[in-house]
User: Fold this.
Amino acid sequence: METNFYLNTQTESAEFTEVYFGQYCGKQLNQDIQNSKSEVLIISPYIDETKLEDLIKLKEKKVNVRIIFNSLRKDQERKILRKLIHQNKENNYVQKEIKEKQHDLYLMLSIVCICIGVVLFLFSIQNMKIDFRGVFYMLISFASSYGFWYFNNKRELTKKIQIYKYTYSEKLDFKYLRDNKENKMEVHSKIYVIDRKVAYLGSLNFTNDGFNSNFETIIKITQKDKIMELVKFANSIFEDNVNFKSNELWLLGKKAYSEEKYLK
Assistant:
């Protein structure tokens, strides 16, 4: 059974405060986010894939989107990070050329060694006499066999020459506040600011359950000075890389994507 409650307090300056509590109390917030024209700022400890899709669509419409979160379950971390981070795969053409040349060289040397070894081994068998020539042929044959083994191993090692380079970029402007328990700097606030005209504060996480099924409470405000304080607070977290360390995209990218380094 759906249960909703709503309160409204309006001031003389036409600024007002609205309180939503109960199930589906994020309905108006969701509409405001969907209808945003210029900027959406979100602070939410928990997020999920479904709600991130909404933000990606806004980003495609040139809306400035920034989101701060600090908790991802192990089973969702890879999915969430793949939505937030793009992997760029580049060919290292210099290394690729070196790889191909070395592979061809060691292949040719392997073939030469095995051919020499087979021919001299056959000569040594035909010359059954135990003389200098027979011993010489046999030794060269063994050396050629070793050469084949050596160059063939070197050829296999060329497969491990790295020819791909990976870089990572953000699909959305985000800050993932992880590993902050040591300095007790976890963010537990739930704040939403839309176009710097309206803001929501309360218990509502940016998750599908939070918006659609949980019993939550949020307060909507339009006071401009209060909203600008919230904007300042959100941006300060983005800029603070001491208490809230930076994203380290190269590390998060490795968690989200596999990195094929060799041409098979």
Observations:
- The mean pLDDT is 82.
